[in-house]
Amino acid sequence: MLVRLVLAGLAGGVAALAFEPFAYAVALPVAIALLAGMLASLPEHHAGRRGYLLATVFGAVFMLTLLPWLHVVTPLWPLIALAEAPLIGLTGLAAAYARRPWWPLVVAAIWTTAEVVRSTWPLGGFPWGRVGFGVADSPFAGLLPWVGVTGTTFVVALLGAALGWAVVTVRVRPVPAVATTLGALALATAGAWLPLDPAGGVRDESALRVAAVQGNTPGVGLSAMAERRQVLDNHVRATQDLAAAVRRGAEPAPDLVLWPENSSDIDPFTDAAAYADVAGAAVAVDAPLVMGTAVSDGVGWRNRFQLWEADGRPTAYYDKRKAVPFGEYVPFRAVLDPIVPALEQIPRDMLPGDRPGVMELADVPVGVITCYEVAYAPLVTDLVDSGARLLAVPTNNATYMGTAQVEQQFAMARLTALATSRSVVVVSTNGVSGLVAPDGSVVERAPVRTTHVLTADVSPRVGLTPAVRWATVWTVLFTVPGAVLALAALLVLRRGRRTPAPLERVEATA
């Protein structure tokens, strides 16, 4: 069993290679195949319990390899990574069914269900490391506009499970093993020849000229945003420079200007100078300007994206809905504050918004989703369902510069564009900022840690991809069977029932 545990850990490390900065998408089915092969070959006695242990070790190493960037904000980051492992471990319950010919479907179903659960629970969930977010620039990516992140996870997990199962059973059941593997491979690579725009999404009659302002920050790490006035001044100055270039005829006039999250950590509604600066920037560039700021209401604060009209008036806004635990609010504050002094850095909790961030900008519905909210597929679906024809992802990754976090999040934005068939504008304080086409390709990208303004004509789109139109159907289809199978396996383990006949017995009667 010790050898199996070591191999499970190695497989978890391989899985992390599918994500930035490595981005080897093939690592995911290979890693799942390694785990599946060990699960399928477990001896009958206590297969479910041992399977759970193996999958938990896999999950622990996977998350520990994927999330070292969390060390920037907390030395306790391994605890966060390890907290994800028991949910990934649920996949190991599939070992209770290992002697069934449909076993790869069981693995894929339980894996997908566990992934959706950990993306929503506890504390709102943590979707980092979803299989569907590790397929950029691969044949698997074409599945996203059809079945979304959840369905893509299922299909890639099915391919890995089929490969692992086939290795174990090919001598016993050669025809089912080969047929299952070939079928899973065909399904997983179907995105390579399926159309990338299954919705028939069409370009609007006129494109928008979008300007994304990356103002840069003076500090690094936890001190990146310490000089709040300097950060605001950087974004104001870059916007005024853009306005001057437009007046000279060096740049076309923008229809819309986007600033990143925390472009002003100074509340412009309580600070007259900040108000005047932002309003003045909007007037100078003569275009609607959306900027991220922190707004206080005396009880808590809101991570707000405020629209300033071209005449300098603040109108519509979006309040970030998904707050970051221990970053923007402290769960169980009354209990934890006295025993964790570091939580003093978060004296007040962020109050989440309660509606999708769709704003009419230049007569086009634009969906705003903040920073790591892009990892939550239901929030993105809400925006497109609410009429968003273009997506904006303002973010502040200044704290994580120099780590894999910024590239991992940018990859999620690219895959979001592909799943929704929408252009995505990512604007960050100091990187990564970029313009992403509806097919997930990067149109333009700003250099990091510099002041830079990205400008481009972006075509809004109408029409819903199957991934968006049938989002609820896909979630039910790919998760309910897994939940039922996992519960059934738990009952088998609890009651001490025997699992189906071991491979040796099947071979003897074949």
From TrEMBL:
Enzyme class label: transferase
E.C. designation(s): 2.3.1.269
SUPFAM superfamilies, per the entry: Carbon-nitrogen hydrolase (SSF56317)
Annotated membrane topology: Multi-pass membrane protein
Gene Ontology MF: a single term: acyltransferase activity
Ranges that cross the membrane: 26-42, 51-70, 76-98, 105-123, 143-168, 175-196, 470-493
Subcellular location: Cell membrane
Pathway noted in the entry: Protein modification; lipoprotein biosynthesis (N-acyl transfer)
Superkingdom: Bacteria
A matching Pfam family: CN_hydrolase
Record's keyword annotation contains Transmembrane: yes
InterPro entries: Apolipo_AcylTrfase, C-N_Hydrolase, C-N_Hydrolase_sf, LNT_N
Domain CN hydrolase, first and last residues per copy: 208-460
Keywords: Acyltransferase, Cell membrane, Membrane, Transferase, Transmembrane, Transmembrane helix
Stated role: Catalyzes the phospholipid dependent N-acylation of the N-terminal cysteine of apolipoprotein, the last step in lipoprotein maturation.
The family this protein is said to belong to: Belongs to the CN hydrolase family. Apolipoprotein N-acyltransferase subfamily.
PANTHER family given in the database record: APOLIPOPROTEIN N-ACYLTRANSFERASE (PTHR38686)
Record's protein name: Apolipoprotein N-acyltransferase
Organism: Nocardioides massiliensis
Phylogenetic placement of the source organism: Bacteria, Bacillati, Actinomycetota, Actinomycetes, Propionibacteriales
